[in-house]
Amino acid sequence: MLGGIAVDYYYAVTMESVKEIIDILGGVMYDLEGDFDNGGRYYKKGYQHMDGQACLDYMRVRKSGHGQLSTSDANRVNRQKNMMVELFKSVKDSKLILKLPALIETFGEGLYTNCTAAQTAALALFAFGLDSEDIGMYSLSGSMATLFHWNFTFTDQSNRVEVIEKVYGVQVEKEKEYTLSYAKYYWASLLKSRYVSLCDGLKEYAEDYFAANDTPAEEDQSEEEDVPIVFFGAADTSAKLAASSEAYSLYTEFNNNYAEMLSLFSTCKKEAKKASSSSLGSYATKLLTSMEETQKSAIELSKAIGYSKKKITTKCYPTSTYSSGSPWGYAYWNETKFNEVKVNFN
User: Fold this and answer.
1) Among residues 35, 85, 121, 266, which one has the fewest Cβ atoms lying within 10 Å of its Cβ?
2) Spatial distance between the Cα atoms of 147 and 264, rounded to a whole number of angstroms
3) Are residues 196 and 319 in the same domain?
4) Which residues make beta-bridge pairs with 175?
5) 290: exposed, middle or buried (C-beta count within 10 Å: 0-12, 13-18, 19+)?
6) Which of 23, 32, 26 is nearest to 58 (CA)?
7) Who contacts 19 (Cβ-Cβ below 8 Å, separation ≥6)?
8) Domain span at 53
9) What's the total number of domains in the chain?
10) Which stretches within the chain are classed as H helix?
């Protein structure tokens, strides 16, 4: 996310440690912008002293129905930033900032760092000379979108590039994969092999089926008049004739949908390879719609000609949650490749 910029040193704390640190520092005076509650604890708007538990409750609120605070992850992050600045002011004014190295050494579990005591002392001394107005806080923010019944935040790539250049003085490229458009295409690509396997199997079966049942064949139609479809060796009952005609119509519809789906896959793949594509989103949306239509027509054809291999008639549309037992679906939560996140804490 930082474009290859290494984070060589770090401090990390658990939520419980945050509460403990604030209590050791004597709490903080803070002007709450509204009433709120959290975990059965209630707080009133206004300037007041807040202990570790109160600060932790304030920084963790993000859902509606718990008072007057603005909700959402973005607002929660902003509250955390503001609280950290006030804590900095408090420990600096009370000269406690110079005691931070000793306080940190008293912690056991809950506080993690690869900095030495000497490095921490040097940082504390440096911080003592800082003014809170000189502290800059930046977020690689984005917008939230619902994708297949899950909420995702997609990083604003323009803002990301701007922040990295401003903070680190390094120019990086936009990550085209971290967009809603690419996510739709990527999800479709994960399903592709399943769709191709099922559709190819159905096509092969249908061709054998119609060959064995005297496939309805179309003759050329003149411009002057409509020539009806001629059935060679058709059954001698009108019911079987109608059933064969309907099945072949379903087969034609399925073939057309399948061909369109494969064409859209090819188009999306080309668009996804471009450094910047304004068309990928619309093509990816069309692709998912085409995949759903292909699945619907495949299921209808399978039922018409008695094809039930691989439980093909158990539907699971590409924009739906996973349906157990459906060969069309993708249980991504069982796939390590899809879910695994690798983090280097040095």
Assistant:
1) 266
2) 20
3) yes
4) none
5) buried
6) 32
7) 52, 53, 55, 56
8) 13-131
9) 2
10) 15-24, 52-60, 73-93, 100-105, 117-128, 157-168, 180-212, 238-273, 280-305, 336-339
